[in-house]
Amino acid sequence: MPGHVVPDVMATQCSPVMIEGSSAMTEAEQRLGRRSPVLSYVMSIPSTPAPATNEADENSTQTSATVDTPETADTPETATAETAEERHARVEADALGFLNQLYAAALRMTRNPADAEDVVQETYAKAYSSFHQFAEGTNLKAWLYRILTNTYINSYRKKQRQPQISDGENIEDWQLARAESHTSSGLKSAEMVALENLPDSDVKEALQELAPDFRLAVYLADVEGFSYREIAEIMETPIGTVMSRLNRGRTQLRKLLADYATERGLLRHEGSKA
C-alpha cells in the first residue's frame, strides 16, 4: 500500500483472503460463508452492560514471559524461559490470529474494502513497532482494537467520508456474533421472525446509517463481545459515554430494521391485526 512501510510478514496479508495455510483464517472464512440470523439478537439486547472481563481469572491462566529471579534461577522453568526475540515472535503470531476480526471491524468502520485494508495494515505496522509496550497478561485483542480504532479515527478526520463501495462477500460478517450470550426476551416473536427474514443488504444499509461512533460501539459490543469497560478503553471514552452510544445505536438500529421489515411486508404496523 502506498505510504506504508510494513514488516515483511504483512506484505501479502493485508486482507482476509491473502493468508494461506492459516488454521485461524480457515475457520473464519468458514464462518463468513454461513448465512447469519440477521442480527435479531441485537434487537433483543436489554440496555445492560456486557459481563466485565475477569482480569484476575485471565491473569491466573497466563504465565510470565520470563522468570529470572534468584529463587528460580536453577529451576527447569528458567531453562526454558523465552528470550525477548522469542516472546516478540510469539506475540506477533498471536496478533496475526486476529487478522480476520480486525479486517471485518475495519470494513464496518470504513465501509470501503481498500480503506479497510489500509487501516488493518497500518494497525499491524504500529503494533509490530510497539510490542515492547505490550504487557504480558493483558488483553491482546483489546490492545489491537484500540490501535485499530485510533488509526481509523485519525484517518477519518483526515479524509472525512470516502465513497461507499459495497462488497457483499467481505462485508457480511455478522455470523461472527455470539448470539447465545444475549437474551431474546426483548422482542415479540413476530418481530423476531420478521427481522430474521430481512436480507443482509438491509442490515448493512441500516448499520451504515448509524453515526460512526454509534456503529462502532454496536459492533464492538454485539459482534466482538467486548465489555463496556473494554470498549471504553478501545474508544478512549468514559464508560458512561459508551453506554449512551450503545443505547442510542441499538435503538436506532432496531427502528431502522423494523421500518425495513414493515416496508417489505414482513412486519405489520402496531395497529394492524396479527
From TrEMBL:
CDD domains: Sigma70_r4. PROSITE patterns: SIGMA70_ECF (PS01063). Residues 203-253 form the RNA polymerase sigma factor 70 region 4 type domain. Keywords: DNA-binding, Sigma factor, Transcription, Transcription regulation. GO terms for molecular function: DNA binding; sigma factor activity. Coiled coil: none annotated. Residues 65-82 have a biased composition (Low complexity). Residues 46-83 are annotated as: Disordered. It holds the Pfam family Sigma70_r4_2. The keyword Nucleus does not apply. GO terms for biological process: DNA-templated transcription initiation; response to stress. The keyword tRNA-binding does not apply. It comes from the Bacteria. Signal peptide: none annotated. Residues 99-161 form the RNA polymerase sigma-70 region domain. Belongs to the sigma-70 factor family. ECF subfamily. This is RNA polymerase sigma factor. It comes from uncultured Propionibacteriaceae bacterium. The lineage of its organism: Bacteria, Bacillati, Actinomycetota, Actinomycetes, Propionibacteriales.
